[in-house]
Design a protein that fits this description.
globular; alpha+beta; binds methionine sulfoxide; 4 helices; about 160 residues; Beta-Lactamase; 6-stranded antiparallel sheet
Length: about 160
């Protein structure tokens, strides 16, 4: 059993530092990317308060061979399985290889509502050898839940995971 419980008194950036340390320890010697994403989705759920969805979309291909995001390990309600690159918040983050912080998902053109309860969202690309190989997606039922601290913490996590998923 792994017992990575965050201290409730930590600041957001300290929490992300602990989350990154835990993710590093859990994934360092495991070559299976799906197992690593599954454990990191569970860590995100434990360490980041105020979520209704936390997980991964991996870069895959559609039936015609075009790049498309495919649902990966997550915690939360069942979600959209395939997202074309460029669609929704995840597809925009994948296309631009850039973090997207969305304070109000209803105001984001093309937002894909997998859970009607979601109000805000952050999506961070995982980049390996210059290519987006996955995105980390967090949703919250709270408006404007995510800040630059979340983005920075998740980008540090994405850097750790880049060669491990
Ligand atoms: N809202 C995302 C879709 C994925 S779910 O939130 C899990 C989007 O617009 O890309």
């Amino acid at each position: 059993m792994y017992d990575f419980k965050p201290d409730p008194d930590l600041t957001a950036s300290e929490r992300y530092r602990q989350l990154c340390d835990a993710a590093d320890a859990l994934t360092a010697s495991e070559p299976d990317g799906i197992a690593n994403m599954a454990n990191v989705a569970a860590l995100l759920w434990e360490f980041v308060p105020g979520l209704n969805w936390a997980g991964f979309y991996r870069m895959g291909k559609d039936a015609k061979g075009a790049k498309e995001l495919v649902l990966g390990p997550f915690v939360g309600r069942p979600a959209c399985i395939r997202i074309p690159v460029g669609s929704g918040v995840c597809g925009a983050a994948a296309r631009l290889a850039a973090t997207h912080l969305v304070e109000d998902v209803h105001a984001f053109p093309g937002h894909i509502a997998c859970d009607a309860a979601s109000r805000s969202e952050v999506v961070v690309p995982v980049i390996r050898d210059g290519e987006v190989v996955a995105v980390i997606d967090l949703d919250s039922p709270l408006p404007a839940r995510f800040t630059a601290e979340d983005a920075a913490g998740l980008e540090a996590l994405a850097a750790i995971l880049a060669a491990r998923i």
